[in-house]
Amino acid sequence: MKDVLVAIAFALIIGSLISALYFMNHDRGRTGRMAWSLAVRVGLSITLFLSLWVGHWLGYIDPTGIPIGR
């Protein structure tokens, strides 16, 4: 379940980045839609990072990486 949520959040972040690129090329700086899309991307990224950090801190996510010292 948590893998699906992370994948969905990552897809939303990429989608927001793509929409900012579209607005940058389409609006040519006349509207604030590009800045809004980038702000949404930053907000989603911070939310995803904090969610992963809290999930690890509470024990919902177990570390499975390479041991320290190798």
Give structural notes:
- By secondary structure, the chain is mainly alpha-helical.
- It has one domain.
- It contains two helices and no strands.
SSE blueprint:
Layout: H1 2-27, H2 33-58
Judged by helices, strands and strand pairing, the structural class is mainly alpha
> Approximately how much beta-strand content do the residues carry?
under 5%
Averaging pLDDT over every residue, what do you get? 87
Radius of gyration: 16 Å
The low-pLDDT segments are none
Order of helices and strands: HH
Largest sheet: none
Considering DSSP H and I runs of 4 or more, what fraction of the residues is helical?
over 70%
Number of domains: 1
DSSP, total strands: 0
| Distance between the amino and carboxyl termini | 31 Å
- The total of helices stands at 2
List its traits.
70 residues, mainly alpha, 2 helices, transmembrane, DUF2909, membrane, transmembrane helix, Membrane protein
Task: Describe what is shown at a glance.
By secondary structure, this protein is mainly α. Helix content is 74%, strand content 0%. The chain has helices at 2-27, 33-58.
